[in-house]
Amino acid sequence: MIEELLKATIILFVVVDPVGNVPILVELTRGVEREARRRVFNQAVLVGSSLLLVFAFAGQQILALFNISLYSFMIAGGILFLFLALQILIYGGEKLLAKSGDVGVFPIGFPLLVGPGSITTTMITINASGQIIAILSVLIVMFLTWVILRGIDKLYDFLGRTGADVIARVLAVILAAVAIEYILSGMRRALRE
């Protein structure tokens, strides 16, 4: 169980990528006072955690509602992961984000921290390791994300833009390998049925 939890947590952490997103998060909150920035990040983590927990608790029912098999979801998720990994490898951690008045909910909480990739990861973890592992990995990753965001100024000063980009790209290679595994696993399982 510990090994499965560790694997699920690492994969979800790679997808959420709070360290690789540090430069973007700093830019989105530039000029915001320290206390207001903390509130924005608290809100972002709360929104992201809530979304992932909804899918951890009701994801199977949501798939059933739309008559989507988990294998199709695995293949689609693998393709999304691969696309995301390639984007990070080619372009770095930079993403085009529209600024809005409430950046804690959109775009930081969703889709920057929690988007299709992390939702897919949570759903696949439920199938591979069970709901308890999925929920625990969500809670651990979102707690780590909250800790990172609390110290974002110090972390950015330490890593710099280049350091954060290097970390994001190394994690993207791991994500690409995981993506290929999801695609192949989904295809193998779909072909068996």
Descriptive key words:
globular, 193 residues, mainly alpha, single chain
- Our estimate of the beta-strand percent is under 5%
Main sheet summary: none
- The domain count comes to 1
Q: What is the number of E strands?
A: 0
Rg over CA atoms? 16 Å
Report the uncertain regions: 94-100
Short description:
The protein is 83% helix and 0% strand.
Topology, pairings included?
Layout: H1 2-16, H2 22-28, H3 34-65, H4 70-91, H5 104-113, H6 116-129, H7 131-150, H8 152-192
Helix pairs in contact: 1-6, 1-7, 2-8, 3-5, 3-6, 3-7, 4-6, 4-8, 6-7
Your description of this structure?
There is one protein chain. Helix content is 83%, strand content 0%. The chain has eight helices and no strands. α1 runs antiparallel to α6. It is an all-alpha fold.
